[in-house]
Amino acid sequence: MATRTALVTGAMGGLGTAICKAFAKDGYKLVAAYHPDYDNKDEWLKEMAAAGVSGIVCVAGDVSKIEDCQRMVAEGEAAAGPIDILVNNAGITRDKFFAKMEKDQWDAVINTNLSSLFNMTKQVSPKMAERGWGRIINISSVNGVKGQAGQANYSAAKAGVIGFTKALAQELAAKGVTVNAVAPGYVATKMVMAIREDILKGIVDTIPMKRLCKPEEIGGLCSYLASDVAAYMTGATLNINGGLHFA
After folding, report:
1. CATH superfamily assigned to domain 5-183+215-238
2. Largest CA-CA distance found in the chain, in angstroms, rounded
3. Which residues of the chain have pLDDT under 50?
């Protein structure tokens, strides 16, 4: 069997890095999509090389712009072959209570966290269906499942990710393409670990397991969803939040 190719958006963030490492361990070719404003690409590649991961194809673009997504997929396929696995992981936050939320804060989160799924998936899902095999993994959030004060934009977008997942799964089920969502709770990424110690402790205290999720636990779950043994799972939302919320 030919080596499969996985494209991960937001690849150079905490979750994206863990997913890329898990996929590299599985032997996939990697296409790492990142925002053009991200200025630590070389450092990230060094970190990946130190972890034994090399040969990554990097493509820069804004996932909220469909033209960028078309170009990134074209560049990725030219360098690494057809995209067999797509992980829609890119996301941003613009938190503010709704009474004070500005329209541009709403639009930025909806466009990056939800409209990006249309922009990216549109480029690869028809080809996956033609080939009779594909995996689409969409990263949602516990706050898309339960909601969160101060995150009306983020919660709406991440809830939309789940609806998109369920609908597209039905359309592609007979084509050998699965579509699933992962809804993480609080994950110990560099960004989260930089939160003030007392605030972070307050967050951990609300989690029944009394710890944050490890990034590699998200990577491992994506690894499973991308595998052949997950072929009968589609349209699912896998909650991984340490017991913080039961859907």
Report:
1. NAD(P)-binding Rossmann-like Domain (3.40.50.720)
2. 54
3. none
CB 218 within 8 A of CB 19: yes
Q: Does residue 111 sit in helix, strand or coil?
A: helix
Query: Under a CB-based contact definition with an 8 Å cutoff, are residues 242 and 211 in contact?
Result: yes
Give me the phi and psi of 8, to 5 degrees please: -120, 125
In the structure encoding, which two tokens stand for residue 193, read together?
Answer: 């670990």
With beta carbons less than 8 A apart as the criterion, state whether 60 and 11 touch.
no
8 A C-beta contact, residue 120 and residue 168: no
Q: Note the pLDDT tens digit of each residue in 176-235.
A: 999 999 999 999 998 788 889 999 999 999 999 999 999 999 999 999 999 999 999 999
Continuous H helices in the chain: 14-25, 41-50, 66-80, 103-110, 116-131, 142-146, 152-172, 190-193, 197-205, 215-226
CB-CB neighbours of 220 under 10 Å: 16
Please indicate whether residue 154 is annotated as part of the active site.
Answer: yes
Q: Which member of 154, 186, 224, 232 is catalytic? A: 154
Distances in whole angstroms, Cα of residue 167 to Cα of each of 133, 179, 193:
18, 9, 35
